[in-house]
Amino acid sequence: MMGETITASPRQLLVGLPLGSQGDLRCQHCGNELYEGEPVSVIAARPAGTVTWLLQRVRCQECTPSAIRQPTLGWTELLVRCRLGTLADGATQRTRLVALEPIVLTRSPPAESEPQMGTDTDASNARITASGAPIEHEPPRTIVDSPDSSGERRTDPEASDGR
């Protein structure tokens, strides 16, 4: 299988994606705790020319934006609606909240990057570019394979290398 290319749609890649643990997963806009069965939105992004998708934001249904407000030049970004489900590991007796039934609502291709008019970003998370256009700044979250003391995979907001 070495050298083979497998093509999969973003929907196929995102189904079952671990988003966090019950009690630890919160809307990254309003801070409300998110539970199994709730509809949420996810912003997934990947740099042009790579195969690794990064999870940037999880939001509750009330905070779901209608569009990708400020596309990032050089990145493909997807706004995805999904439902939270539970994945249980019987051997470790641990559960994770995962994305179920993902539907891509909109996408931003890597060549697109235009400032948007609007006020849908938090002032504390906004920064200004040299051109004066505000851009949203929230660190990406990735699923990393460096185990914590329990040996389970964890979501790390500080990871940026896409491992």
Automatic annotation (TrEMBL):
Q: Cite the InterPro entries for this sequence.
A: DUF8112
Domain (DUF8112): residue spans on this chain? 7-110
Residue ranges annotated as compositionally biased, kind Basic and acidic residues, are 150-163
Which residue stretches does the UniProt record annotate as biased composition, category Polar residues?
A: 116-128
A Pfam family reported for this protein in Swiss-Prot or TrEMBL:
DUF8112
Q: Which domain of life is it from?
A: Archaea
Region annotated Disordered, chain positions:
107-163
Can you say what this protein is called? DUF8112 domain-containing protein
